[in-house]
Amino acid sequence: MTKRPRFSGSALLLALLTTMCLSGCHACQAQQPATSTQEGYTYKRPSSGGTGKVYMGREIAAIMTATGGNWLDRDTRQEEENSTRTIENMNLQPNTVVADIGAGTGFYTFQIAPRVPKGKVYAVEVQDRFIKTLESRRDKEGATHVTVVKSDSLQVNLPAQAIDIALMVDVYHELAYPKEILKSIHTALKPDGKLLLLEYKAEDPDVRIKELHKMTKEQIKKELEANGFRLQRQEDFLPIQHFMLFEKVNTAND
Fold first, then answer.
1. Residue pair 222/56 in contact by the 8 Å Cβ criterion
2. Which residues form the Methyltransferase domain (predicted)?
3. CA–CA separation, 59 vs 174, rounded Å?
């Protein structure tokens, strides 16, 4: 029988406080002054719906959990976002390789898949409940060229130089490590690869989305250009989102 270690009263109190602090990292960060890290992030007291983690002047929003899946598949989404027009403007060819990063329940993945019958769609997700939903839907629809990929907060886990176009729809603002994920996407893109970002318009007060879940064009451009991307095309045809297409800037290491 394994013996449990014994603690003195003071040691037990210290262990309890340490556990509480580790399990409530945002609360711990809130007690710290804003400080820089080696990765270029700073920390502050979290705003409502925020993480308290700041990148290039923007507080990163708390991630929407898989319990919000019904909202992703709401009946009004096509009307509100006009996803059909977004996909039409991705210039997809039958053999295009697409990565839907933060695929959720597959709202975009399974609209894109029929348009690239000789290509491939990677549905990339970090949350296990969404992973199961994506796999189930892929099998049900017989979309054999859709590959579901489990990512993490630092890597998209895609093969190098394999992707023609990566897509993130209302996802980027929630990335816990945007700098690292952009680097991972950059590696996964082909030399002429593209990254399409859709984000809710922070400039428009009529877009009734929480502030931390919206971004300005200026902020999007600033962050992506700092991480190996150049704005190629920007459109204003979507009702509530920015459509910003970036091209990969190749370096000597590519």
1. yes
2. 93-219
3. 9
Identify the helix (H) or strand (E) that includes residue 246: strand 241-248
Contact of 228 with 253, CB cutoff 8 Å: no
The two structure tokens encoding residue 28: 């711990």
Per-residue pLDDT tens for 61-104?
999 765 555 656 667 777 788 999 999 999 999 999 999 999 99
Q: pLDDT category, 29, cuts 50, 70, 90?
A: very low
Alpha carbons 182 and 36: distance in angstroms, whole number = 20
Sign of CA dihedral 149, 155, 160, 166: positive
Q: Hey, which residues does 143 pair with through a beta bridge? A: none
**Angle between the 178-188 and 217-225 helix axes, to the nearest 10 degrees?**
60
Domain ranges across the chain: 81-248
pTM of the model: 0.82
CB neighbours of residue 226 within 10 Å: 14
Three-state DSSP state, 16: helix
